[in-house]
Backbone:
């Protein structure tokens, strides 16, 4: 089992912040922000020393919860400071990006980082459609087309044009091409039927997140079926599971940590917007409809003492088939980092060495 | 509305269908494939479209095709070929370069291997491939691109080899733009102005 640390940048506000998304940027404190990025580097040096295989970053906007609106900037910054860890950029939100620009920047980053890049391409959470005025009804199509264009830009040997449904370019010929050939290990992130089919068709990895093992297993099972349909079998490291983990000395202590957490949704939109988005956006898990809007806290699927968590990881491998865990060891958005550092200590000493062989 | 006709050259009959006005756009179609796609109708809004039935994969037929087009009053024209008629179109372009303003090759067929004398071809050329077409077909298209000086290649998203049938609007837009502006079609004319 490979293990990734999901870095969200822990912004610790000097005063209470509004909870509604988008969060008023006038409430941002520049010194607290600068401190958060300095702390991130210190923390990740420790994460790397503990033996994590990857450090991952994501793309979220207009909120202090995850302070990485440009994951490519984040990843480049981390690549310059970390010596060994793979940088997992999970990932650019494809539908509101320029796919050619994404292909160029990822190729450039992979080259500068000596081939230490892993890429996840995704549609993004529902609220992110509002970030750059993306029509949510077109998000799925734009994601599929954009992902295909990124792969094509990485691999086509001659200048080419793209006559798409949502993207059009007359001339594309990127320099540099990726350091890793034909391209960095790449995941289509998401549980949807469309995402799994895309990943299978293009021989990419599949990344799922947060849901219970049994539910995520529906998506990864469908992904493997689709891979078989296209005549190949994914390796374990091509199935990635991003999850929350709360590890403490005892099961009771871990559950006490969970009870102490705020139970709000990650990105709380105003009711009128949220209700409208419910009708405009559509999501599914391997074809089974699910709500596009997360209204409560994200599940914590690994919780307990080190012994308990190790068994849960084993069960996750059996059910989900994941060969990579991308872990958040304390909820993003928390205003304290001490619990995270304690969890890192415990995970690094009593869990990580025992799940390597799973 | 397309009208049907035929023209005879040295005992050989060429069937054709024609519609539209404007500069001429000749589409060489396979024998027995005179069925039109929605793209023909869309192109006929801006061009005089003549879909001419020619023998498959026969560059040797180019002289008689050229004479047939002369009989139809087509001295200078834009030329388009699909899959198996690509060799005939290339033969015509090599034989009579002054008559061909620009050339579009849709999904060149695997069997139509590039000939070595394409280096002498100096006509603006665009190759169209569908993103759902198979790898060997795309390899043929790329090989043509390398052998034709200054050749453009574009992928039409979500189309197989029958691009004009599957993505008629996308096909028409890029073909019409290329025939209108040739190499300059790489310069965008799309406006991003929202509120003047």
Residues:
């Amino acid at each position: 089992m490979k293990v990734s640390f999901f870095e969200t940048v822990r912004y610790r506000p000097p005063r209470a912040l509004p909870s509604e998304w988008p969060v008023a940027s006038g409430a941002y404190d520049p010194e607290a922000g600068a401190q958060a990025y300095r702390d991130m580097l210190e923390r990740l040096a420790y994460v790397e020393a503990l033996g994590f295989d990857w450090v991952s970053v994501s793309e979220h906007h207009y909120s202090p919860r995850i302070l990485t609106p440009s994951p490519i900037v984040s990843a480049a910054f981390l690549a310059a400071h970390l010596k060994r860890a793979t940088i997992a950029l999970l990932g650019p939100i494809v539908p509101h990006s320029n796919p050619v620009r994404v292909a160029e920047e990822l190729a450039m980053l992979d080259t500068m980082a000596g081939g230490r890049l892993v890429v996840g391409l995704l549609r993004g959470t529902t609220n992110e459609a509002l970030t750059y005025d993306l029509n949510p009804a077109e998000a799925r199509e734009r994601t599929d087309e954009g992902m295909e264009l990124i792969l094509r830009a990485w691999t086509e040997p001659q200048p080419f044009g793209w006559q798409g449904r949502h993207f059009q370019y007359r001339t594309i010929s990127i320099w540099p091409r990726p350091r890793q050939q034909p391209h960095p290990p790449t995941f289509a992130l998401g549980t949807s039927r469309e995402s799994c089919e895309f990943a299978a068709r293009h021989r990419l990895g599949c990344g799922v997140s947060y849901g219970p093992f049994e539910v995520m297993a529906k998506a990864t099972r469908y992904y493997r079926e689709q891979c078989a349909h296209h005549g190949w079998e994914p390796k374990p490291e091509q199935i990635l599971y991003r999850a929350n983990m709360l590890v403490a000395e005892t099961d009771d202590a871990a559950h006490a940590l969970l009870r102490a957490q705020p139970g709000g949704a990650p990105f709380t939109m105003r009711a009128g917007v949220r209700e409208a988005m419910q009708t405009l956006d559509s999501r599914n898990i391997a074809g089974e409809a699910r709500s596009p809007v997360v209204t409560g806290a994200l599940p914590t699927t690994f919780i307990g003492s080190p012994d308990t968590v190790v068994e849960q990881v084993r069960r996750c491998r059996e059910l989900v088939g994941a060969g990579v865990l991308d872990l958040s060891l304390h909820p993003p958005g928390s205003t304290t980092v001490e619990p995270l550092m304690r969890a890192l200590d415990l995970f690094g000493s009593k869990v990580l060495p025992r799940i390597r062989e799973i | 509305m397309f009208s049907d006709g035929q023209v005879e050259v040295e005992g050989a009959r060429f069937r054709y269908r024609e519609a539209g006005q404007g500069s001429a756009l000749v589409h060489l179609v396979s024998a027995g494939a005179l069925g039109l796609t929605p793209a023909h109708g869309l192109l006929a809004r801006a061009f005089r479209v003549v879909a001419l039935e020619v023998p498959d994969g026969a560059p040797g037929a180019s002289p008689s095709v050229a004479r047939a087009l002369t009989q139809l009053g087509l001295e200078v024209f834009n030329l388009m070929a699909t899959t198996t008629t690509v060799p005939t179109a290339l033969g015509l372009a090599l034989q009579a370069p002054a008559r061909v303003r620009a050339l579009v090759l849709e999904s060149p067929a695997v069997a139509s291997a590039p000939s070595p004398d394409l280096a002498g071809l100096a006509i603006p050329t665009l190759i169209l491939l569908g993103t759902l077409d198979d790898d060997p077909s795309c390899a043929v298209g790329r090989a043509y691109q390398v052998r034709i000086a200054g050749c453009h290649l574009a992928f039409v998203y979500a189309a197989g080899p029958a691009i004009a049938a599957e993505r008629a609007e996308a096909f028409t837009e890029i073909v019409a733009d290329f025939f209108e502006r040739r190499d300059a079609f790489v310069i965008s004319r799309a406006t991003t102005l929202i509120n003047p």
